[in-house]
Amino acid sequence: MLRFLLRRALSAVPTLLVIATLAFVLLHLTPGGPFDSERVLVPQIQHSIEARFHLDEPLWRQYLRYLGDLAHGDLGPSFQYRNTSVNELIAQGLPVDVAIGGTAMLIALLLGGSIGLLAATRVGGWRDRLPMGLAMLGISVPLFVTAPLLILVFAIRLQWLPAGDWVSGSWRHLLLPSVALALPYTAYIARIVRSAAIEALASPFIRAARAKGLPSLTIVLRHALRPTLMPLVSFLGPALAGVLTGSIVIEQVFGLPGIGRFFVTGALNRDYTLVTGITVLYGALIIAMNVLVDLCYGWLDPRVRARQ
Fold first, then answer.
1. Strand, helix or coil at 53?
2. How many CB atoms are located within 10 Å of the residue 66 CB?
């Protein structure tokens, strides 16, 4: 296990280097600069500002300087948010995204997994067709439609929950954006679990369990659940990284101070360090989630554990 983790950690270094390099180069090749939207400045003042952020240096020197800071865990200062580092902005926005994303994924797993298992045991019946039709609807309707509808119903009409803003520790402010973010993931998980469960329930060892007279619930939970989770784990790797870094649509609709809003603002204002830092963070989360997926594979299937 330790050798496997060490090997994956070493392979993650060049991957993150490529991600950081591409983000750095592409942002600097984009027309415009971080201070182009400012009012016209005296050349001496303009030069002083650029020198403060080392923008007057050649691009290769800026790149090496950034890699040196990145190796020490320093993502650099933000150009848009003055006197604030990218590390501070991520530390401010990431807990919001973790709270909402974690709650959304928990809802999606519980609801989508239950719906998928139920549909797999009633293939062709109304308990299969109705939830799968709703799941297809959940996949087809985008978040910028479902999120305002939830606000209209539960915040404006019924006035059960607040329409937006963020209060740390308040479940009422957490619930509505989490449900909105969970809906498409619930639909995906339900369809994945249904397909995997149908295949697992058609396996010879399941037929043998039925021949022994075991109850259907025992067969599903004790014998069919583990092979059903294999394709679901593959989906959860990038999905978890996505929800933990926040949904830009959800943050915009509900007015949440997550890193998704920082990313959009940074991209519009050519905030090189902010956009690159969030991109590197997302890449690191993807790598970490893939390692976690491989560990889960080893737990679910001993044959994978032996190869690791």
1. coil
2. 21
pLDDT digits (tens, 9 = 90+) for 220-278: 777 777 777 778 888 888 888 878 776 788 888 888 888 888 888 888 888 888 989 99
Q: How many residues does the chain have?
A: 308
Under 8 Å between Cβ of 201 and 224? yes
Could you give the CA distance from residue 173 to residue 177 in angstroms, rounded to a whole number?
8
Tokens 């950081």 belong to 20
The domain limits of the chain are 1-74+270-308, 87-260
Per the listing, tokens 């609709």 go with 253
Write the DSSP assignment of 13-43 as a string of letters: HHHHHHHHHHHHHHHHHSSS-TTTTSPP--H
pLDDT band at 306 (very low <50, low <70, confident <90, very high): very low
Q: In CATH, what is the architecture of 87-260?
A: Orthogonal Bundle (1.10)
